[in-house]
Amino acid sequence: MATLEDIVANYGSGLARVAASYEADPALQEDLVQDILLAIHGALSSLKRSESLAPFVFRIAHNRSVTHVMRQSAQRKRELPEAVDEPADTPEQLLLVDERSRMVTMAVRRLPLPYRQVMTLVLEELSYAEIAEALGLSISNVGVRVNRAKSQLKELLHAP
Amino acid sequence: MPHDDILAEVGADWKRQTIDHGRLLAHVERRRRRIRLVFAIKVAGAAIALLASIWFIGLALAGEALAFGLAGFILLAALPLMVMELIETRRLTRAGSNIPPEGALHAARDQSMASLRLLWAPRVGAIFLAACALGLVLLHVGGKASAGDAATIAPVWLITALATWLWQSRRGQRLKAEIERCDRMLDELGEGGAA
Q: What value, to the nearest 5°, has the Cα angle with vertex B186 and ends B185 and B192?
């Protein structure tokens, strides 16, 4: 069975990127990543032998992230996290980013939720079958969403 | 530009964002220890509350001041809430591994709805505590409780009751906002599914 160390080593950066697609605040991002990792660690015993680790790990990441957004936005009384201004760099931020990467993350964060979810997993190089397994969708639905996500992402990145 | 060119271009930028694994692992381990400690403190708190309530009620039955009986009864009434919170904390750490995000949102919504419906319990508790504070003052007036008890315990109970009431009101507002936000996210996911 995978340990917490294995999960952090193999999926830590990917999980942090997924968390960043939901949460703009670096401190809350780290909080969310820690929450996701603890949830994965707590649920590892329920992982079936036949089940792949990547869909399992990213399913928990998305589940924790949507509930995080639900609770945080209610707490902050702000509008959609997409509307949150990008905070300035802080020494405590989890992800090491450059300007171009930050723009990509911001664009992904602005995608509607169903497209954002598939896009983050495509960018993490999961197959359509794995994305379908992680998000509980049919493979054809994943295909439709990915195409729409790509189209919207292109528009967002090339918007003036 | 074809869409896949966008993916190739964006993919490289996306993957360039990395983390310090050692630092993250250390922080997660620290948080895991803190969660365990908090859980242990809550279990100890519940156990102490149970023992103290039995002791206080025993003292009251043995002929000590009636204030002991009231205090014991209050602690006993708070115990189910403490135990429920412990169970919920344990359940939440394991939730969400076998359902898709839409299911997780439905589960979170159900949980917020249940918490909203259960707000009456701490509110009744606050009223009960305030009534007990008043009862203690009346016991003092009737000569059954000392002035010291009435002057120290009654204000503590009253302040706790007021704080509980205000906190639950704030919690109620937050839960309603959570449900509203959850509904918006579920609508958004539903629209994506209908695409």
A: 90
